[in-house]
Specification:
Length: 119
């Protein structure tokens, strides 16, 4: 299971921190990512953190977003710090492994957390 939290409604330029807690998935052992689904668009991978702590972001997020995992493995949590938010960052954010976890032949997704950025 994956449980995302931390989303909200903010003004452009503000910040949010998203959290992802995992159960039965050891996040420190796998590549993980944050995915975003904007209204009317397909879900896309926007931030990646490999098991050996290499990070990558889509170009539009570089310099503004930071992904990291909690140093305490017992918390089994991954974060996404979002700074200087823009309206185009809005969407539902999901965390998952990279590639996504598959359950019964389909990609498994948590409930996600909604981020809405107003101009």
């Amino acid at each position: 299971q994956l449980v995302e939290s931390g989303g909200g409604f903010v003004q452009a330029g503000e910040s949010l921190r998203l959290s992802c807690a995992a159960f039965k998935i050891l996040l420190w052992r796998v590549d993980v990512g944050w995915y975003r689904q904007a209204p009317g668009k397909q879900r896309e991978l926007v931030a990646t953190l490999t098991s050996d702590n290499v990070v990558d972001y889509v170009d539009s997020l570089k310099g503004r977003f930071t992904i990291w995992r909690d140093r305490d493995n017992a918390k089994n949590t991954v974060y996404l710090q979002m700074a200087n938010l823009k309206p185009e960052d809005s969407g539902v954010y999901y965390c998952n492994t990279v590639p996504p976890v598959v359950v019964a032949g389909e990609n498994y997704w948590g409930q996600g957390t909604q981020v809405t950025v107003s101009s």
